[in-house]
Amino acid sequence: MAFSLRGVRVPPNSASVEEARRRTLDFFKSACRSIPAIMETYNLYDVVTPSQLRSTISSEIRKNAHITNPKVIDVLLFKGMEELGNIVEHAKQRHHVLGQYVLGRGGLVQDLGPKDEGISEFLKQFYASNYF
Amino acid sequence: MAAALRPAILRHIRIPVQTLGRSRPLPCLHPLPTSMIRSMSSHGDDHLTREEVVERVLDVVKSFPKVDPSKVNPDVHFQKDLGLDSLDTVEIVMALEEEFKLEIPDKEADKIDSCSLAIEYISNHPMAV
């Protein structure tokens, strides 16, 4: 089960934004505490430092910092816990972790070769994703 | 039969116990009592000096990417002086936990708001390495 290690102790119904904020910070702390285990599992010692991983996690959390509805925050926390559980129990692989959290947007993108130089902006966005 | 045999056997096995005479003066520190030498302790019993704690705490804060290193001094408040928010504060506390190999409980971690409180807490923590 995804939460065998993380332990979702409180049922996902935050009463207020304050409680949701508390649980976000607790989630962040448990994520930071499992960073050494993650580095050991995926052998990231030469690739990234723990402080860089901490910054990545905090920026991921900060992307949703503007949300005020406690139920939405609960859903995001649930997804975050699930992701953290997956990574800790080695359900993901090294390239997943590297691509999603170590390298940024420009890391895994294929270089545009000479054949692509003339394409339009529309096509570039289309190749990147379905939604834009 | 067994009842007679038992004390005979015990008489052979029992070691006569001698109580130490109270007249002998108790050696207090010489030789060093073995409880003071923790040879199997993996944590290093040498306590950190305060300057070393200050040094390392300031290093951790300065190496935080959002912090301007020139503004960091031992009295700086994370949110008021350095302009960080609560998530950054938690991140700094986690970085300190990693640096000093501690695990700070939530109640204490919430109170750590500034460099001086952090230095205070770590200096008073018996397990800080």
UniProtKB/TrEMBL annotation, chain A:
One of its GO terms (cellular component) is mitochondrial inner membrane. Keywords: Electron transport, Membrane, Mitochondrion, Mitochondrion inner membrane, Respiratory chain, Transport. It is a peripheral membrane protein. The keyword Membrane applies. Its main location: mitochondrion. InterPro entries: Complex1_LYR_NDUFA6_LYRM6, NADH_Ub_cplx-1_asu_su-6. GO terms for biological process: response to oxidative stress. The keyword Electron transport applies. It is found in: Mitochondrion inner membrane. Belongs to the complex I LYR family. This is NADH dehydrogenase [ubiquinone] 1 alpha subcomplex subunit 6. It comes from Elaeis guineensis var. tenera. The lineage of its organism: Eukaryota, Viridiplantae, Streptophyta, Embryophyta, Tracheophyta.
UniProtKB/TrEMBL annotation, chain B:
GO terms for molecular function: acyl binding; acyl carrier activity. It is found in: Mitochondrion. Keywords: Electron transport, Fatty acid biosynthesis, Fatty acid metabolism, Lipid biosynthesis, Lipid metabolism, Mitochondrion, Phosphopantetheine, Phosphoprotein, Transit peptide, Transport. It holds the Pfam family PP-binding. Gene3D superfamilies: ACP-like. InterPro entries: ACP, ACP-like_sf, PP-bd_ACP, Ppantetheine_attach_site. Residues 51-126 form the Carrier domain. Pathway: Lipid metabolism; fatty acid biosynthesis. One of its GO terms (cellular component) is mitochondrion. Its main location: mitochondrion. The keyword Phosphoprotein applies. Complex I is composed of at least 49 different subunits. Carrier of the growing fatty acid chain in fatty acid biosynthesis. May be involved in the synthesis of short and medium chain fatty acids. Accessory and non-catalytic subunit of the mitochondrial membrane respiratory chain NADH dehydrogenase (Complex I), which functions in the transfer of electrons from NADH to the respiratory chain. Belongs to the acyl carrier protein (ACP) family. This is Acyl carrier protein. It comes from Elaeis guineensis var. tenera (Oil palm). The lineage of its organism: Eukaryota, Viridiplantae, Streptophyta, Embryophyta, Tracheophyta.
